Amino acid sequence: MARKFAALGARTVLGDLDADAVRAVAGEVGGIAVPGDAASEQGVAELVDAAMGEHGRIDVFCANAGIGRNGGPEADEEAWAASWEVNVMSHVRAARAVLPHWLERGEGHFLGTASAAGLLTMLGSAPYSVTKHAAVAFAEYLNITYADKGVTAQALCPQGVRTQLLEATGETGRILMGATAIEATDVAEMVAEKLGGEEFLILPHPEVADYYALRAGQPERWQAGMRKLQRKVE
């Protein structure tokens, strides 16, 4: 997304735990690198301060950090806490930091990277599924609450994308998403096309809309299909 936005003329400020990687990409796109933990209040503050100090304003905040931890109720406290901090609270803290600026200006846009799991579920990972549902809910809350004040939000909900996060899902991810996984550049192209538009959900895999409708309208049928996939995974 940073590469795509830069190609369209955007000035970028990038944050990541991987200091070498974020500096490399920032150098490539002419942006500012802010190594650190985007899930923490300090990390968010450093990102916002860097953007405001350099550019005087923030037009779009992309809450893109995410982690996937496996397991269900038996997953340990650390797995649940880390998932909540990165997949949900990073979004909350980002919104808290930029909202005063946006409301004063009367404009601003929040893009929350969730997942198709935030609309459906992810087999084998309750922490991921639950927190991605929360990320979608938070973006929805922002859009409902502030859109009439000029501050809008969208939720980005892809299925499999060929990144390290997908690789970490192992055999389960390969079975569920390997055949339909797309490149990160494909996601970036769609984000650039849909960003700031009327569609709340950005769905790089359009079939997710059909799954989401089936889940809402016929939950028993949807769950029966997912149980069948669960048996296949097991």
TrEMBL record:
SUPFAM superfamilies per UniProt: NAD(P)-binding Rossmann-fold domains (SSF51735)
Gene3D superfamilies linked to this entry: NAD(P)-binding Rossmann-like Domain (3.40.50.720)
Entry keywords, A to Z: Oxidoreductase
InterPro entries, alphabetized: NAD(P)-bd_dom_sf, SDR_fam
Segments crossing the lipid bilayer: none
An MF annotation (GO) of this entry: oxidoreductase activity
Pfam families documented for this protein: adh_short
PANTHER family named in the record: BLL7251 PROTEIN (PTHR43391:SF26), RETINOL DEHYDROGENASE-RELATED (PTHR43391)
Family: Belongs to the short-chain dehydrogenases/reductases (SDR) family.
Protein name, UniProt field: SDR family oxidoreductase
